[in-house]
Amino acid sequence: MTRLFFPSLAALAFAAAMPAAADPAAKLVADKSQIAFVTKQMGVPMEGAFKKFDAQVAFDPKKPEGGSVALQIDTASAGFGVAMSDAELPKAPWFDAAKFPQASFQSSAIKALGDGKFEMTGKLTIKGTSRYVTVPFAIAPAGGNYAAATGSFTLQRLDYKVGDGEWTDTSVVGNDVQVRFKLTLAGLGPL
Fold this sequence. Notes:
This protein has helices spanning about 10-15, 85-90; strands spanning about 25-30, 35-40, 45-50, 55-60, 70-75, 80, 100-115, 115-125, 130-140, 145-155, 175-185. About 5% of the residues lie in helices and about 50% in strands. By secondary structure, it is mainly beta. The chain starts with 8 loop residues before the first helix and ends in a 5-residue tail after the last strand. The chain is elongated and about 50 Å long. Strands 1-4-5-7-8-9-10-11 form an eight-stranded antiparallel β-barrel. The protein contains two helices and eleven strands.
């Protein structure tokens, strides 16, 4: 059995969770941003990340209900930093990057929870399967003209058919995937 670690689809979801369609528009600063995922292989936590993603964000922290976010994640960029596992992730049982080169998230609602905290609901699509997810996040100044949106949420990989065939055994690769993100934005309105 090939040793493989499953990357979190949730990471995709949260990266997308940043608002992207209202005024003012903010620009994703990719080299200061991260979408990571944590799953368990044989009960041991394994952390990976997506190296390529983009987001269109339109969000006013003072009026979050008018905001939107669209996120696109390059599924072939998922990795754990382990050559054997990283070579398997783009293949059909996992992300099937040849057939589904991108995962995406599109927000449908954003609401303020107070103290710089928000909640976003939207559609996460991975391997052609779409489900609505709710993603909590916080926004804080990150120096200069930057703000950082951070958060995490958990999804079930099998809901998106990630880890088909022999990999559906959740005693080998866990079904829960925690997605953690930090999206650094330039040009976000006053916090």
